[in-house]
Amino acid sequence: LENITLTPHVYWAQRHGEIYLRVELSDAKVGQSTTSTQGHGAKGENEYEFSLEFLEPVRPEINHKSTQRQLDIKIKKQEECWWDRLTLQEKKPLFLAPDFDRWLDESDAEMELQAKYSGLQLFSPVSSAYLGLKKGYLFMYNLVQFLGFSWIFVIMTVRLWILGQDSFYDTFQTTADIMYFCQMMAVLEVINPLLGLVKTGFFPAMIQVAGRNTILFVIFGSLEEMQNKPVVFFVFFLWSTIDIFRYPFYMLACIGMEWKLLTWLRYNLWIPLYPLGVVAEAVAVIQSLPIFDETSLFSLPLPTVLGGSLSFSYVLQLYLVLMFLGLFINFQHLYKQRRRRYHLKKRKVH
To answer: Is the pTM of this model over 0.70?
Structure first.
């Protein structure tokens, strides 16, 4: 029994450059290693030990401060970046928990970092002008997209209320122009991460924008036979329903504000709507296959020996497979965002 190692409760939080550990030991005396301490914990006055294998490399210097209530440890990351979790192993140790007194999610930490940077650069007009221009640009972009998709959503909803199912068949004619505009503007969502204007991933944005524009411009835009099909209504309606909550959320984030209901909708509404949107897009692709076969539109020329041409429908069949692969990748990305933003805050409430 004397050889049993006692482990204290350890709470953690992070910033882009540091890791913070709070060890629940009163009157702690740190030994030769900061992971071995003598203090009063859950098992009384004893020697307590713990070890952590971090997700990424850290600097060897460790700062620690002991108080009457706890032991505070500060560790600097080797590179300034945001970690998805603290430890290399996915399953966290039982003694480890988030320190909600210090906890910030990635976007909040980014805002804190920007505020700190702005304070340090208070007398730098160039830096202040850049940050102001960046915020103004992102706010206006999200505002324009919000207004565009809101217009589409309202028009479709009103027409559905008045005309019923008859509105399914001319959705493209009534909303295509503004949808073209919004989706061409959406290309900026792929460019913004490359320029460092936003912290969102490049690949998830590219998958969504490329997927939507393929459906809009290639399937609906180039085939008149597809423009009167009900599937257009369902695709446009699902896209606009998602985006009338997504863009105002980003607008408020630009100015450091949060509306809890909007945040909840942003991180929960996609769970049913995003897969439904992909299914509607897949139906549109499947319905277009025989049309591409009949019209030979976008067919790839081949030598006569090989048949003369390759129907574009074969390319779309491959695209169907990639579409569901993209669904899996983006679903994982959105789930991680939701877990960081919503799930941890929910645990804090409880």
So the answer is: no
Same domain, 140 and 231: yes
Residue 7 and residue 196: Cα distance in Å, rounded? 42
Q: Encoding tokens for residue 118?
A: 């702005």
Which residue, among 56, 54, 58, has the nearest Cα to 96 in the 3D structure?
Answer: 54
Token digits of residue 212: 């939507």
Distances 189 to 163, 192, 193, 301, 329 between C-alpha atoms, Å: 35, 5, 7, 34, 17
Helix 312-338 to helix 202-213 angle, to the nearest 10 degrees?
A: 140
Task: State the pLDDT at residue 41.
Answer: 53
CATH number of domain containing 57: 2.60.40.790
Shortest CA distance to 163 belongs to which of 233, 216, 62, 249? 233
**Does one domain contain both 257 and 315?**
yes
Looking at residue 340, what DSSP letter applies? I
H or E element in which residue 113 lies = helix 106-120
Q: Is 113 domain-assigned? A: no
Kindly list the catalytic residues: 274, 281
pLDDT averaged over consecutive 10-residue blocks of the chain (350 residues)?
Answer: 71 87 76 54 70 87 82 88 83 82 63 54 58 88 97 97 94 96 96 85 87 96 95 97 94 84 87 92 96 90 72 92 86 76 48
> Would you state the pLDDT for residue 120?
46
Residue that the structure tokens 């099909």 belong to: 229
